[in-house]
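Notes on consecutive records. When two proteins share a document, each keeps its own sequence and its own token line. Never mix them. Below: protein one.
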Amino acid sequence: MSDHISYQGTEDYIVSNDLRNSVNISVALKRPLLIKGEPGTGKTVLAESIARSLGLRLIIWNIKSTTKAQDGLYVYDTVQRLYDSQFGEQNVSDIKRYIKLGKLGEAFESKERVVLLIDEIDKADLEFPNDLLWELDVMNFYIPETGETITTKHRPIVIITSNAEKELPDAFLRRCVFHYIDFPDEAMMEEIVHVHFPELEANLLAEALNSFYWLRSVPGLQKKPSTSELLDWVQALTIGGIEPEKISREIPFLGALLKKNQDFDLALRQLHLRGTDSSPRATSRGW
């Protein structure tokens, strides 16, 4: 397959020109695309959008604090082999039966091109990115237990996300195309909400966006509400039949936007200072 693809976004994912260009450049250069941005800016969903747009399968490798680079290549299931040798009827001399490919190995071996998402790489230890460098460069790896080399049949489109919890090594950064997803401004956020709620009343959307961005501006919030939380909140407002004029006064269903007790209490104090309604609906954490 040619690398001269043209990702344009999808109907349910609004993409900026800069981000669109970054995706296409990373594919053309055969480099991983490293995406940073605060939680809720659509980093993970980007990979899903790319896969749908190009008609490719998506493989997701969710990184944890205990994840090692080896996990993404393959695992030799010695426990199962030992069990089979004692209690099973299988021929345990065929070691290949106990080699299980990881997500990276699966992407390399795929008969068709795939999109590989390495999600939240900064959760792993500092050695993890460096351990990936060689495999991401040469697109193959060796399995000493079987003497087999797995070589990619079709170079996957690699998307790597980071929440910037840790600094990534310079050597790793040099091998990536980098893009930082800014939090959407009100105009883009309006487009995003319209994609999910095309029939939403204009006054309700305007009031919801005004209150949402006011809430994000409150100093001291530990976790600002994100796009996904805004979408949940808008749906709650719609289901609850909330009148637009009540939204800025009361910010109903505040628990759909804020998820930490300290943030909730801080927001309520700011609402009180702003002269909003302090009725039970405004202060309730439930629906």
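Protein two starts on the next line and is unrelated to protein one.
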Amino acid sequence: MTDGWDWRQPGGAPTPAAPPGAGAPPAGPSTASDGVHRGSPASPWWSDALADPWRDPYAPAAVVVPGPVDGAAEPEPVVDPDAPGRPPLRQLLLIPLITALLAGTLGGALGYAFAVRGGAAGGPALGAGSAEAPALAQRKPESLAGVAERVLPSVVTVRVASMSGTSEGSGFIVSADGHVVTNDHVVAGGNGKATVVFNDGSTAGASVVGQDPESDLAVIKVSSATGLRPVEFGDSDALAVGDPVLAIGSPLSLANTVTAGIVSALDRTMQAGEPGGPTRYYAAIQTDAAVNHGNSGGPLVDSAGRVIGVNSTIKSLVADGQEAGNIGLAFAIPINQAKRVTQDIIGTGKARRTVIGAQVGGAGGSSGGAGGVRLASVEPSGPAAGAGLRAGDVILRLNGRPMTDPTDLIALVRKFAPGSVVTVEYRRGASRQNASVTLAADAK
């Protein structure tokens, strides 16, 4: 062919023509066993034959390998890593390997520690973690939790053995030498001995110092008392309906129980007592804080942690003789009255009873349409007589407090200390009058 190539189909023996101007082909180009044609300076193939776009695709797949080029750079010498004077390759590889292992171990240990601390060990992390306690957990002294923490060490459980079993109630420490206030009905029927259980679970023996059944208050004293923390007293006369309060004690033998509520009413006159026992009268603080059996004698405290009442009774919907539970109607003896009675008992062994010097005979009737309490009799030398009151007079108000039942007058009079001056509004016939009465202590 004119282009010097043999275009015969594969299988024939190609007879390549020499390119123009080329001499006769050399006699013996060598072919290695791998099929590669080792070119020589006299080879009929040029070095870029494979890149020729006009190359016959069916030509033999021979590859021209150029021979050595004169003046080429010497190849870079290979250095033996284990040659004398150089550290062995194994040591060079061990250093980063050990470093990586140590870093991984340390990182894993730290990660596990942080996971355990954050509560994520053994499962997925739940919630958002925080390095600091939330503000709510940093309880201020005036918070309910702060008040409870401060008062609880001063509250005790009182146990008294009697012929019918063991009576259990609550109490609170009022002096560093071991005096404890509780209810009279907690220690009544006992042998004058009691056991006191403190906030930390420790116990001590105690003896009854004195009792006042009519006010339902008693004082016991702990023997061998050290390190006791007395309560702080508040002012029950300064309370207002709606003030927050805490009741602390051992309801149903659940020691160190704290319940919260508000002052529901003031001067709620109470008449209580067990069959065959004394009748108790007091103008109580009513609260909706949960109070149950066992709270008796425990403190009712205000939002500053000051005792403002002694928990004493509850109202219930069950029949007499059945176990009653909290329905949000609990009553406490005002602390001003309880403190005065306590001081009398510690000082003299008994309490003074405040009287007005008159006997009540029933409701005042509807004469004039104002109700009130009628005086059945007046002691000649008593406080009422000294103020000009007479039998038949109807007491309408005492210090502004309306009188609707005989219990109202008895309970409210006993709230005041002997020597207190109270204002009495009364009705005599069709006229209304006022008198100032200086209350006195009972001669008993």
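For the record: Confidence is low (pLDDT under 50) at residues 17-40.
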